[in-house]
Structure formats: structure tokens, C-alpha cells
Amino acid sequence: MKFNMKKAAALLLAGSMVAGYAVPAAAEAGEKVVTAAMDQAWDTMMPLNTTSNYTRFICDQIYDRLTQTNADGSIEGRLAESWTVNDASDAVTFKLHEDAVWSDGEPVTAEDVVFSYQMYSDPSVEAKSRYHLEYIAGVDDSGAELSEDSIEVTADSDYEVTFKLKEAMYPDTFLQDIDTVFIIPKHVFEGKTAEEINAPDLWANPVGSGPFIYDSEINGERMEFTKNENYYLGTPNIDRLIIRVVPSANVLSGLMNGELDLIGFGSVLTDDWETAKSQDNLVTESVPTTSYTTLIFNTQKEYLTQEVRQALNMAINRDVLVNGLLMGEGTPIMTPIAPVSPYYNDKVQVQYDPEKAKEMLAEAGFPAGQTLKFFISSGSSITERCAALIVQDFANVGVNVEIEQMDFATLMSRMLDGEHDLGIIGSGGTLDPSESREMIYPESSCNFCQLQDTELSDLIDKGNAELTFEARKPYFDEYQEKVVEKAAMGYLYTKNLLTAYNKSMKNLNVADFNCLNWSSWEWDKE
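and the corresponding C-alpha cells:
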């Protein structure tokens, strides 16, 4: 490929304006400073009150979790040095690193873990991530405690903690489900009222046990951290980490001119990918992932019946989305279980038949004058283009759609309130096939499709009750078939992670980033 000088010049010019900042100067001579980009801002500093992976990238520098997941589906310890599962497969005991300390010098103990899970499960505390507790005994299916401190998480000693599960289950499902539950310091929050915990003040200068210590921020634009000299997994190799919010259109220019070192969460635009690959100062990687994009249908709208949803699902030309938006760097899908997963059901074929969709819409009595409200998040050009293509596909079968853009937090809030007809949401997915339960269970804080029955989640639960892959797979095969039949969501495509980083960066495993595993204490810079 020939280098596009005109495009490169334009990108470099744009790069000088990335977020309005020049290259940050090191605080001291010889200090290693790494600047990571993400294309959307964090929505809170309260780690339990988010479903945003952009916020989790921020929180992962400050706080710890018991485990984290690798791109190959394996699970490794973080705060947990090791764990054991009992013979009945209904309890997991974690042994904690005994040298872990909070950034104020206090030791991290099993009591902090117990307290954190009690806080997450307390219904008076705002905790959008509460659903990650759903498998633990003593909480309801939304993760809320059944009575005060009823969640069955127990400190066996200063550095051992046991989780009692509701029933016997495949342990990896539980371990992956809690790998974004961050551990909070009991000594900071104990005795505080729910009102105090829900307010931003206690979270503004966080005390954490993670690899970096919060230093400063420009809200919505930039956050800076210094290395945690006492991090129990090893003092980070870099001295200062800067996370900047950079519009996706400006990410490559920032990487090219050295203002950015890597993409922490996000991707190079597909339109920029060939240019990125031609840069001498960058390493580029295209990694197949479990990450997917899905069209949300509001199942509670009377005119969006199952038959109508099936027809609209059939009207979408997914090949055009993958080839036009992703330049082929992805795969069309009909379910949330990606082709890279061993649970993928290859009998579920991608459907595209606009003529049949028209017939089904007529048979279902879809109102001729109905205009559907389509909510999308602002700031992502690929989302905007994806929505525009879907609008055209729906117009081709006689359905009018009106797009409304808003920031991501507003998008989630309004869709949870059921104001939408359609919406677009992305997920990192996992190799565990039960990941999508949180988006289809009626009481979940991520139930954007407003599904009110448990037909789909019941199949997931039956699969999770089995303890071997061979016993689990038939349930998840059936689940994928039912997903297409139910059409609560129109799954669109998985997309490869298109990432780039400066050649001076070392010890990055960018494939793990998509699993929310950054291991930033291992990063280095020449």
C-alpha cells in the first residue's frame, strides 16, 4: 500500500488539536509518562455505579478486583492470590495477597472484600453494577440483598474470604461475573449513610489499592495518576499515567505525532486503519474478539411485536455493515455468542431477506404511519454511520426511523426508562456464553430491551447449572436459537480490535484489553 501523504498531513494537523492539549511534559527529568486514549469520558468516579467500560478503565487503575479475565478465556488472580472451589461447586474461597495495602497505608483485608460486596448489594446505595452479584447466596436476581447484610460473603480470616453461591454452578461463570466488582476500603466508607455514599464527595479523592494513585483531573477530558510504589503485584514501570478523552476521529493523529502512546479503550477508525499500518512509529494489531454491537428493540412498545422485531431483524444487511463500516474487520452475527467462542452455534445462520421482511410487517399489522425513535450515543462516528445504514435498511421495507443523539450516560438512562423504540449498544462480550444474561433479565440494570419474561435467562441458568462443557453446550445452542426467535435485540456484528501503540511501549497484551484486563503495572516505555 502507498502512503497517503494528503491524508497523513490532515491527520497530523488535526492531531495538534487533540483534546486541546500539547504533549504533557514529564514532572521530573527522566520520568516515564504514558498517555492513553479513550474515545468517551467516564460517567462517574463511583466504581460500583457504572456499566461503562470507559469508567472501568479509569477505576482499574485506582482499585483492585479479585480476578481478571484473559483473551483466551482463562482467569487469573488479581487481589486474589489463589482460590478453591468446594466439592459441591457451590462455594468459592479466595486467598488474598497479604502484602496489598491501600494508598493511605492501611492493609487490604478480607473485611474490605466483605464490606465491598455488602455495599454493592445494599439497595439504598446506587450501584448499576449490582447485577454482577446475581449468583451469590443472600441476594435476589438483581444482586440486591434480601435483608440487611444478607449476602453470603464471609471473612474466614484476615486474608481468606468465602462466597456461598445460590446453587452448584460452573465456577468460571461466577469468576468472570465478578471480575469487574472493585474492592472498596472499609475504613473510608464504614459508618457513612447511603446519602453520603451516593454523593460524589467521598469518591472525589479516591483511596484505592490499584497500580496507580489518583492525582488530578479535568472533568470529562483528562485524568492523571502516579505509580503506586507499594503495589503488591510489583511497582509499575511507568511513573505517571495520563488518560485522555480523545474523539475517535483524532486518535490516530495523536498516535502519529506522539501525543498519545496507546489506546486504552477504543479502536482506530476503520477508515484510518490502512494509514495506521503504514506508520513507522506504530505497532498495529487486528484482534478477533467477542466484542459485539447490537440493535436494541423496546419489547414493551405495542407496535414492536415479536413478529415485527423478527421482520426488522431480517431487514438489516449485516454484510454491508461489516464491509462498509469495518472494512471486513469483523463478522456478521445473529446472537451475542461470537464465532471465536467454543459455545458458538454454527447452525444459526445470518438472515437477510427484505422482501420477506415486508411481508411479515404487513401480516403483523405494523402501523403505516409509525415513526420509530432511534437513540444513539454521540461522539462515535461508526455508531452514527451504523445507525444511518440501518435507517436506510428499514426505509427499504417501509419503516420510518428518526435518529436522536445524546451522551452515553443519558442514552442508558433514557433507554432504561423505556423512552426509545430502537437503540445501539456495544458490549465487550466474553468467552463465557452467559455474559448476555445481564441484558435480557427483567430486573437487570442493563435490560435496555425492556424484556419482562425469563424464557431466555432461564436457558442460561440451566446451562450454568451444568458443570461440564459437554453438558452446558446444548442449553446454549438452544439459547442462541431462541435469541433469534425472540428478537429482543438485533445482534449486528462482532468487530476486531483495531489497535495501535507507539513502538516505544513494551509489555502490552492488547488482546486482553477487550476483556477489561489492562495489567497496566506491567507496561513499560523505552
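(Above: one complete record from the training split.) The two ends are 29 Å apart (CA to CA).
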